[in-house]
Amino acid sequence: MFFPPLISGQRHKQAFLPCRVPGFSLVEVVMLIAVLGVLATVAVTMVGKQKSAVLGTKLESDVSSLNHHVVMYLADGGTLTGLTNPQAVLDKLKRSRLQADLQSHTGGASGRLVDTRLKAKITTTAQADGSPRAKWNSRTERFELTTGGGQAVTEFYFDETLRNTDFGTDSTRRVGRVKYNSSTRGWVWGGAGASSSIAYQSPGSTGGNGITDLFDPNESVPTA
Question: Cα 148 from chain centroid?
């Protein structure tokens, strides 16, 4: 059978045409790598900012709690005068009253006020990202948040090596005592500077005859 040469040549060319494999061109691969790089940069930046925000929120909460304990300590006769280092303040709050004072103490802060493991991570320069640090103000006797330089705390954390550390007793707390008078069955309250020799004294008049009825529940409310 005879075939025309033209047709035969066309079939020959079609038999040896190269087969195309689907894929990405070099330009498409470069563009994909660039896009992935941008996405990775954005993700790392967002994660870093989120971590900084979490640490800032924790620090703010820790400062609020510590200032609450400081107020309680000072109101119960404690003193932080002369302390300028944040860690020294924490260590002072870890001390308890003297054993002899505990037997007659009626305040709300007989023992230590913070965990013995509590430690302050102190730096002397401001944070590069502008996040706050906790600075001890010795004049107002409280922790304050700051973004400036100087000695301040970047983080409060637990140091497990301090778990069993004994920080001793606090001999600087003012004494406030109460003693039971067994002879007259009454309590004797001592002031902040009271000594162990507080004694019961019978109440007496400061002058005047006084009144016989201190409270009358049936009395009318004054109109003027």
Answer: 19
Task: List pLDDT tens digits, range 160-184.
Answer: 999 999 999 888 887 666 665 556 5
Nearest to 61 by CA among 139, 134, 138: 134
Residues 134 and 39: their CA atoms lie apart, in Å, by 34
Map tokens 């103490």 to a residue: 105
Helix ranges (H only) for 76-112 are 86-93, 99-102
Digit-coded pLDDT (tens) for 72-129:
999 888 899 999 999 999 999 999 888 777 766 777 777 789 999 999 999 999 988 8
For 179-188, which contacts have Cβ atoms below 8 Å and span 24 or more sequence positions?
179/104
CA 81 to chain centroid: 22
29, containing H or E segment: helix 26-75
- The phi, psi pair for 5, rounded to 5°, reads -60, -35
The Cα 129–Cα 49 span in angstroms is 9
Q: How high is the mean pLDDT of the chain?
A: 77
Q: How far apart are the first and last CA of the chain?
A: 137
